[in-house]
Specification:
about 220 residues; Arc Repressor Mutant, subunit A; about 0% strand
């Protein structure tokens, strides 16, 4: 019976899951945590660079989310709503405390899956893809050197797959600013990868700022 309930819960849409949680279903609350705990934790840990602190912030994120669950708009993605809460909690923490950038253990980075898309999709040369463990560890080191907001926008866009609209909502920025920051974040990541000797093929072309971004920059502040 328990296994059947778990399988059935896993197929529930986000809005229905929230509705059941608000109706008092403990299983619905547990499913929300099960479904989104890992991506929320993964984002935060790479922002604060400390697993213990990230665990506290992830717990704070879900506590705040559950306290304000009635404010959730079912027309939005639940993941985006949770990322926004995590984003605000993490920024508050970073503002209160200046953190040293400490690279994660290589084993942790290697266990997270393929991150090549973060720098330039399909750009890694075929003979470099075999070095996946080294590339993943190097990518994590490159991300560690970046500004927190650049790290975050890359992770949300390429790791979590958020659309520009969702990025703008989570980061509370105009759409044009999001596109500019994303381009500049990719450009900085490629620069950091080059310094580590891990730049993918076509890196120079990827670093050129598109004309559309330059036009938007004249209308909106990029920072």
């Amino acid at each position: 019976m328990r296994r059947s309930a778990t399988r059935e819960t896993a197929t529930i849409r986000d809005a229905e899951l929230v509705r059941r949680a608000l109706a008092g279903s403990g299983e619905a609350y547990r499913e929300i945590v099960r479904r989104f705990e890992r991506p929320v934790m993964s984002l935060i840990v790479r922002m604060v660079r400390d697993p213990a602190t990230a665990e506290d912030l992830a717990q704070e994120t879900f506590v705040k989310a559950f306290r304000n669950l009635r404010r959730y708009d079912p027309r939005r993605k639940l993941a985006s709503w949770l990322f926004k809460i995590a984003h605000n909690a993490t920024l508050d923490h970073l503002r209160k405390k200046s953190l040293d950038t400490v690279p994660l253990e290589p084993a942790d980075a290697a266990g997270e899956g393929s991150w090549e898309v973060l720098s330039a999709p399909a750009a890694w040369a075929p003979d470099r893809r075999a070095e996946s463990a080294e590339l993943l560890a190097g990518l994590d080191r490159a991300l560690a050197r970046m500004r927190p907001n650049y790290r975050e926008i890359l992770l949300l866009r390429f790791r979590e797959g958020l659309a520009y609209r969702d990025l703008a909502e989570v980061m509370e920025l105009p759409m044009g600013t999001v596109k500019i920051q994303l381009h500049r974040a990719r450009k900085q990541l490629l620069h950091e990868l080059e310094k580590l000797g891990l730049a993918p093929a076509g890196a120079e072309a990827a670093k050129q700022e598109p004309a559309t971004s330059r036009r938007v920059a004249t209308k909106e502040s990029p920072e």
